[in-house]
Specification:
The complex is a heterodimer of chains A (382) and B (306). Chain A is of the alpha/beta class. Chain A contains 13 helices and 13 strands. In chain A, strand 8, helix 9 and strand 9 form a beta-alpha-beta unit. Chain B is mainly α and 306 residues long. Chain B has one domain. Chain B has 11 helices and 2 strands, in the order ααααββααααααα. In chain B, strands 1-2 form a two-stranded antiparallel sheet. Chain B starts with a helix and ends in a 10-residue tail after the last helix.
Chain lengths: 382, 306
């Protein structure tokens, strides 16, 4: 009797306590704008699934997410951001995959006092002069993986690269990043159309160029098309690229054409740390497929947000910003910190495409760049 | 720049052109015979590619995959014609655009629901993989040569069908005067279904052929659809011959423009700026071509002046 009274009392106190905390802290409202339909949908779905997996694992009800599909269209993304800010009254925005969409949404969202956590796009304009205290990039600055690819090309002894990327902000950042670290000559430099599916003309130029290596940045379906057509063309020049062209989502569609290709990534499923092991196993159990780097970025973004929510109230912007900046969460990448421009300082690895049974995937073969930041941080005044 | 490279680029342009023709032929037939703007033509292309990928995955046979693509796209086309399109013939073009746009969304989400959001694997068959050596020492992928061959065969077949068969007579009559051929006892609604299914099958064939060298994914049809519309506008709406000439023009302009324009600008600019300006201009090249054709011949190259 006495025991049960005690128990009841404890329960009542606990209830009262949660009641108080719930009244004091409404859940943090997160607006996720990402690409869930059309050609780039695989990337957005991976980010979303990674993000939601981290929330589910935390068991926390401190975060409420509104998910919207931007269809990879900048105008749609802008409308969604207005809607999320004005009618859903979100505190934090996240989710955008493509740099041209990020450029359309992020500056106005941060100017309105919202926080933006980027799980993917990291255009140079937002890392340098256009940086903002409320903008945190949890993935990379766009140039980073390409810089590592340039460094790898030097190590591999390549001296005459043919480079190509789509003509949009991230594509331009890609070629700039590669050229920043790569010391050899260029056999050719080509900008393709965003969403282009036929690369016969470019492959013919590569064949005629006398290059000793190819660097390309073609995310999503563009990379699938290029690799299949390249494998079929009979040109046998070694290929390097960033992980975007070799992520888990597209390797199955490329098949054996990608085997042996070297690519650079800040994450890989075989990275040896506790958080990553838990993530890879949980992602497979939850969704029945292997995670991609996009999924790991979504997962890290959610965990960063959870760490900040646990420390500070989102309505106290200064405290919340400081809590985000600490980056006090267990990243799937191991060591992770924010630089002065709120972009990551992290290791970037060289991976090789391998076959495990029926599945094509990546394994780490070397560390490309250690504790790598970006060159734009110096231009950032905040 | 060598001659070999230029010839290879011309072949690439031809290959793109004949594929666009296979795509545009159905579009222009449907417009010519039924007066219908069918935005969902790109979805039929996607259905062909997905059917081919599914069958190739299950059986390993590329030939069966092509047959499945033809069958699935024709079936989807016939079904759509009977259920939806048939109600649109009497309406104005805006209603047709709205309804067929809705079909794009339905097909895209339906395919996503059935196959998932991630691209499927469809590879070229081993007997067509790798390059072949052409006279003059050009290495060119065998599969792309096969695509050129298939495209030309389709063009020839369509020409024979339209000018030498009873169905062709009915199609031409339907283009000229649909009330009259209905009055002459031709079952016009059956004719429409057949024409629509034929156009759909061609789109499905194009999707399967192209899917093997590109990525089979939801939304793959829409960029091609835009090019196909450019083709039929240039060629003259309703004209198969116009679609053929227009497709080759667009294919060659797109490929050679993307290849030559950056080189042209590189003569007086630094390479990376020339690349950016040249490729920006190259992506406009086909639309400039369309504008010029429309200024000179407002009804298109082979169109009947309205």
């Amino acid at each position: 009797m006495k025991l049960s009274t005690l128990g009841g009392l404890a329960l009542a106190t606990a209830l009262a306590a949660t009641g108080v905390s719930a009244a004091g802290h409404d859940p943090v409202k997160v607006g996720m704008i990402t690409t869930l339909s059309g050609g780039g949908a695989g990337l957005g779905i991976d980010v979303r699934d990674g993000f939601m997996l981290a929330l589910k694992q935390s068991g926390s009800d401190a975060i409420e997410v509104v998910i919207e599909d931007d269809q990879r269209k900048p105008d749609v993304a802008v409308q969604l951001a207005d809607k999320l800010i004005q009618s859903d009254k979100v505190d934090v925005l996240t989710g955008i995959i493509w740099s041209n969409l990020a450029m359309a949404v992020v500056p106005s969202a941060t100017a309105q006092g919202k926080f933006y956590l980027s799980p993917n796009a990291g255009p140079s304009a937002l890392a340098g002069k256009g940086c903002h205290p409320n903008y945190f990039n949890v993935a990379w600055q766009n140039d980073n993986l390409h810089e590592a690819a340039g460094a790898y090309a030097n190590d591999a002894g390549f001296a005459n690269s043919f480079i190509l990327a789509p003509n949009y902000p991230a594509g331009q950042d890609a070629l700039t990043g590669y050229k920043r670290f790569y010391k050899g000559d260029l056999a050719g430099e080509v900008f393709t159309q965003l969403g282009q599916t036929d690369y016969a003309a470019e492959i013919a130029q590569i064949r005629a160029s006398g290059a000793d290596s190819i660097f390309f940045f073609l995310p999503g379906g563009m990379g699938i098309s290029f690799l299949k057509q390249y494998a079929d063309s009979g040109v046998e020049i070694p290929v390097v690229g960033p992980a975007f062209s070799f992520d888990q989502g597209i390797l199955q569609a490329v098949g054996a054409a990608a085997l042996g290709v070297k690519n650079t990534s800040q994450w890989s499923k075989d990275l040896d740390n506790e958080a990553n092991k838990v993530f890879v196993a949980a992602f497979q159990a939850e969704y029945g497929r292997l995670p991609s780097l996009y999924a790991s970025q979504g997962y890290d973004t959610a965990n960063l947000l959870l760490s900040a929510v646990a420390k500070a109230d989102v309505n106290d912007a200064d405290a919340f910003r400081a809590a985000l900046k600490e980056a006090d969460f267990a990243s799937t990448r191991g060591d992770f910190a924010f630089g002065s421009n709120n972009h990551p300082i992290q290791d970037i690895y060289v991976r090789e495409v391998i076959q495990e049974g029926e599945i094509f995937t990546n394994k780490i073969v070397a560390t490309g760049l250690t504790d790598h930041s970006d060159v734009y941080a110096a231009e950032c005044q905040m | 720049m060598s001659w070999l490279l230029l010839i290879e680029q011309v072949l690439n342009g031809l290959q793109l052109g004949v594929m666009l023709f296979v795509m545009a032929a159905g579009l222009t037939l449907v417009f010519g015979v039924m007066g219908l703007i069918n935005l969902a033509h790109g979805s039929l292309y996607m259905i062909g590619a997905f059917a081919a990928a599914a069958v190739a995955g299950a059986t390993g046979s590329f030939l069966l995959a092509l047959i499945a693509a033809l069958g699935a796209a024709a079936a989807a086309g016939a079904l759509v014609e009977i259920i939806v399109i048939r109600r649109l013939y009497g309406r104005d073009h805006l209603d047709q655009v709205l309804a067929t746009f809705a079909l794009i969304l339905i097909f895209s989400e339906g395919v996503r629901w059935a196959f998932g959001s991630f691209p499927l694997f469809l590879d070229i068959p081993s007997y067509l993989s790798g390059p072949v050596s052409l006279p003059g020492g050009i290495l060119y992928p065998a599969y792309r040569l096969a695509i050129i061959g298939i495209g030309l065969a389709v063009a020839l077949g369509l020409w024979a069908l339209i000018s030498h068969t009873r169905l062709g007579v009915q199609i031409r009559a339907g283009e000229a005067d649909r009330e009259m051929i209905a009055a002459l006892g031709v079952d016009i609604s059956k004719l429409y279904t057949v024409v629509f299914a034929l156009g759909a099958a061609l789109a499905g064939l194009a999707g399967a052929l192209v899917g093997a060298i590109q990525s089979v994914q939801v939304g793959m049809g829409e960029p091609v659809l835009i090019l196909a519309f450019v083709v039929i506008v240039i060629g003259g709406i309703g004209s198969i011959k116009g679609a053929f000439v227009g497709a080759l023009l667009v294919g060659l302009t797109d490929t050679l423009g993307g290849f030559l324009l950056p080189q042209l600008f590189a003569l007086f600019m630094e390479p990376s700026a020339a690349g950016a300006v040249g490729s920006a201009l190259a992506s406009m090249a086909i639309y400039l071509l369309m504008a010029v054709v429309l200024i000179v011949r407002p009804a298109g190259l082979y169109g009947e002046p309205a």
